[in-house]
Specification:
heterodimer, A: alpha+beta, Arc Repressor Mutant, subunit A, 3-stranded antiparallel β-sheet, about 30% helix, globular, B: alpha/beta, Rossmann fold, Helix Hairpins, 7-stranded mixed β-sheet, two-stranded antiparallel ribbon, 9 strands, elongated
């Protein structure tokens, strides 16, 4: 019997792209608080990743930060499946002097 | 300080109010240091309960007790090695399920536990009810205490619970039941671990099956190599039987346990019970929601345009007057007066960069107002409010979130589309976000609005924001009905934060970060563009003038601008100055203002500064005095303009004529910047609207186009550049020619 943990991964695999925590919680009929922990497990395992609203290695001319960008604070937390042939995501310190991090 | 039977540890997830609770328990009896060999802060304190002196150790905040972070290892090692008399696990009652994961792991350690349900008031406000007795029973009778740590509610009950637990020695009675395949292996492994003399056999067996490296290494080093091998064999059998690795099954087991645990323990009110839900009943109402949203935006732009106006005038006076004089004076002292270098500094850098920086107060007011809406929780509702309108055009509220980001800056808005699930939605939304009026366009609306519409500039700004949304929706309609038809509708689900009183600290941080990004751009892109524009303005093309001694319209920049201006003839703004500003605005939208300032004000700034310098009109001290006096006057005017928001809002109602406040007497508060005065000569109210509409809609800045290219490819970015140019021109012409036909004048 498939576990709830596996169902989380399967749902992300079945999605066409990134899905927000709230939306996935509704699809799986699981409380967001529980799903948050399940997703954290798969993120740690490298199977899922959080999608930040900033391009890998790219930066806005103004700053260059991703998850700390002052303009994208209201975006919901969104995750997607890490495909087999994809490189892992690394968070690096932004070098623009703003003290934020960016996704590489 | 050695741990003993009367030591307790405070454990919990991050941000559950653990430190507040620690302070409430220990008061001033605290010692702060570091965990041995670590940079993680360690806090110890003491409290007296009855005749017992108890040491309290605040463990680092963790979500679990695995060995993946230093905080987790510190917490786990302390509990295992120091063996406190009890662990008080602090739980955020409003996020019970998430927090219970740590509780299940602590239960597996078979230590006396006290469950502190902190922030119970917040949980109740959110309509959550927790059956404390049932929860305690399901957790094997461990004490469960309801708390509001920051107001001290429940602290005495917690102390009593701690007192009762610290001397208990019997192990816990409730264990998390795992998958059958795991439970089949656990007893064998447990017995082997027990026989080998290791403590906590069930917990150790679980850790071995999880593949916990630290525990596995420790057991192996202490002569438990056979146990490790046995565990590895068990892991293989579990995976063969279930198709799932043991660690995932164990994690799944804990979550299944939590789901069963909270069933019946935690109940949520369903309809209209909490204040947030009652407020949402009105603010996200299917009919009232959109008008309320629009009214709020209208109010924000009134605030932005009017409240910041005195400060903009004050800064304009500094930049275009006093600073110019100071620079000229300094250059005169070093013998550079009247040179190209002076022209570059005053007519190029100061007019260009300074001309944009004078609008910092406008952005601060806008970002403050938006910050209030965000921090209160309302902004997240805007997507819900817009969901209905978005569905009409084939998108959904989810797509409105990147568009909201676009109100700040289009670049992160383009990247924000990657949070959308479907590629078509990402592409279409990416196309739309560039129509959202970013902060960089605001100075253009403010300067044009103030010049042509005075106190009604807020209406022009509001109109531009709405126009951006309307054009975006129309574009979505075309794309979704044309290129991307037959796409199935997507549901829109979003977790809405509860409403709360906005916190000044957070609003200030947002406002300063956003304004800071604007200032940074002024110091980089706008500075560079200003220098290039100055160079082009100094280069003669008439074959007669010399470098830096040429009328602007006879310069290289003037020639290019004149060549472009016929295109804008049907839109009503065919002057070479506005045409040139629009061309340079392709770099960044703020550059439209800086270029206009360079063309229309720069030369006069330089001439004015030189004239002032030559007649020695003021001393440095007099200048400082003038700055101080004008600042006081500006502060008074700012108060006046803030208060006048009320009568101006009320005066929208036909027939009402509430008088406005005038703190400095009639006429004294009227002021226009040098650029505004020049614009009045070039534009009419109708052509001003057409001009600002063009600025709003035409090709976004270079960085946004680069972001589009990176996200969607060169072809899509090129489509977007062409489409925005065509739409901008068409809308501007429509406004101007339509307005003339309606008799609105030219």
């Amino acid at each position: 019997m498939a576990t709830q943990m596996r169902a989380v991964l399967d749902q992300f695999a079945a999605a066409s792209g990134p899905v927000s925590l709230a939306e996935m919680a509704q699809r799986l009929a699981v409380e967001p608080g529980i799903l948050e922990g399940m997703i954290a497990y798969w993120v740690r395992k490298g199977k899922l990743r959080e999608v930040f609203a900033m391009a890998p290695g790219a930066g806005c001319a103004r700053c260059g930060v991703s998850d700390t960008c002052a303009f994208i604070v209201q975006m919901p937390r969104t995750y997607e499946l890490v495909r087999e042939n994809e490189l892992p995501i690394i968070n690096a310190v932004c070098n623009c002097g703003c003290g934020g991090t960016k996704t590489q | 300080m050695a741990a003993h039977a009367l030591t307790i540890a405070l454990a919990g997830n991050p941000n559950v109010g653990k430190s507040t609770l620690f302070n409430a328990l220990t008061g001033s009896h605290q010692h702060v240091g570091n965990w041995p060999g670590k940079t993680v802060e360690k806090k110890e304190g003491s409290l007296r309960i009855g005749s017992d002196d108890i040491i309290v150790v605040d463990l680092p905040g963790t979500y679990s007790l695995t060995a993946y972070s230093i905080e987790e290892i510190i917490s786990r090692d302390f509990i295992l090695l120091e063996q406190p008399g009890a662990v008080v696990v602090v739980v955020d009652a409003a996020n019970l399920e998430r927090n219970l994961y740590l509780v299940t792991q602590l239960m597996e350690l078979d230590i006396p536990l006290v469950l502190a349900l902190n922030m119970i008031d917040m949980a109740r406000k959110r309509g959550m009810h927790i059956d404390v007795r049932l929860l305690s029973a399901r957790l094997g009778g461990i004490p469960v205490v309801e708390l509001v740590g920051n107001s001290g509610i429940g602290i005495e009950s917690l102390k009593e619970a701690i007192r009762g637990m610290v001397r208990r020695t019997e192990p816990g009675t409730v264990h998390v039941p795992y998958d059958d395949a795991v439970e089949a292996e656990l007893p064998r492994l447990q017995t082997a671990i027990d026989n080998a003399g290791f403590a906590r056999p069930r917990w150790s067996a679980i850790k071995l099956l999880e593949g916990d490296l630290l525990i596995t290494d420790t057991i192996a080093q202490r002569g438990g190599g056979a146990l490790v091998e046995a565990a590895q064999g068990a892991m293989k059998r579990i995976e063969a039987a279930t198709g799932e690795d043991a660690e995932t099954l164990l994690t799944d087991g804990r979550y299944q346990f939590i789901m069963g645990l909270v069933d019946g323990v935690l109940t949520r009110s369903t309809v209209g019970r909490t204040p947030s839900e009652r407020l949402d009943h009105i603010l996200t109402h299917r009919l009232l929601g959109l008008p309320i949203f629009l009214l709020m935006m209208w109010f924000i732009f009134q605030l932005t345009a009017n409240v910041s106006a005195p400060m903009v005038d004050w800064m304009d006076g500094l930049v275009n007057g006093i600073f110019g004089r100071w620079i000229t004076s300094v250059l005169s002292m070093v013998g550079l007066s009247g040179t190209w270098f002076e022209s570059l500094l005053v007519g190029g850098v100061l007019a260009g960069v300074g001309g944009v920086l004078v609008f910092v107060p406008v952005l601060m007011v806008l970002y403050f107002a938006i910050g209030v809406l965000e921090d209160s929780g309302y902004m997240a509702r805007a997507a819900f409010v817009m969901d209905r309108a978005m569905r009409v055009v084939g998108l959904h509220g989810k797509s409105f979130l990147p568009m909201l980001v676009g109100f700040g800056c289009n670049v992160p808005a383009v990247y924000a589309t990657r949070t959308l699930e479907h590629e078509t939605d990402r592409k279409v939304t990416g196309f739309l976000v560039t129509f959202m009026s970013c902060g960089a366009r605001l100075p253009v609306y403010v300067v044009v609005g103030s010049a042509l519409f005075g106190a009604a500039a807020g209406n022009l700004i509001f109109g531009m924001y709405i126009l951006g949304i309307v054009v975006a929706l129309a574009t979505a309609f075309i794309l979704k009905r044309g290129i991307y038809r037959n796409q199935p509708p997507q549901p829109f689900v979003m977790e809405l934060p509860p409403y709360r009183m906005p916190r000044m600290r957070d609003i200030w941080r947002q406002m300063s970060n956003r304004t800071g990004s604007f200032v940074r751009e002024a110091g980089t892109i706008i500075l560079a563009t200003s220098v290039v524009i100055w160079l082009l303005l100094a280069l003669p093309v008439d074959g007669q003038s010399a470098f830096n001694d040429v009328a602007p319209e006879q310069s290289a920049f003037g020639a290019v601008s004149r060549g472009m201006s016929p295109i804008f003839e049907p839109a009503g703004f065919a002057s070479w100055q506005t045409s040139g500003a629009l061309v340079s605005g392709l770099v960044a939208k703020e550059v439209v203002v800086s270029t206009m300032n360079q063309i229309m004000v720069g030369e006069s700034m330089q001439a004015g500064a030189e004239a002032a310098e030559s007649v020695e009109t003021t001393t440095f001290g007099e200048d400082l005095s003038e700055i101080g006096n004008s600042l006081v006057e500006t502060a008074v005017l700012t108060v006046q303009e803030t208060l006048n928001i009320v009568p101006r809002t009320l005066n929208i109602i036909p027939g009402l004529n509430v008088p406005e406040l005038s703190l400095l007497g009639a006429g004294e508060e009227e002021d226009t910047t040098a650029l505004e005065a020049s614009l009045v000569r070039l534009l009419t109210p109708l052509s001003a609207v057409a001009f600002t509409a063009f600025v709003l809609l035409y090709t976004p800045c270079m960085t946004t186009v680069a972001a589009m290219r990176q996200e969607f490819g060169t072809r899509w970015a090129l489509y977007q550049v062409v489409y925005t140019l065509v739409v901008a021109w068409a809308v501007a012409v429509l406004i101007f020619q339509g307005g003339r036909l309606l008799g609105l004048g030219a």
